[in-house]
Amino acid sequence: MDIMGLVVQLISGAVGGNIGGALLKQFSLGPVGNSIAGIVGGGIGGQILGALMGGGGAAAAAGGMGSILSGVAGGGIGGIIVMIIVGIIKNMMGGKSS
Q: Does the residue 4 lie in any domain?
């Protein structure tokens, strides 16, 4: 994995976390919390998607654009998922019922 792919995943994760927070307000952690959870999820989600796709070999053969798109997809989805998980835990610990 190159550094550019990791940066794409982390940025996509932050964006995904904030989009998830905007759509699912009951799990939102605020802009900074959504971004941090999204960055963590983006890194994890991008790595998982890369591993599932065989290390990105097929994406790299597509000229790099497939690699970027898979990084955006994995990062964004991972960011949303981690933001939701952290939001659920926060709500459970805070005693909120949504």
A: no
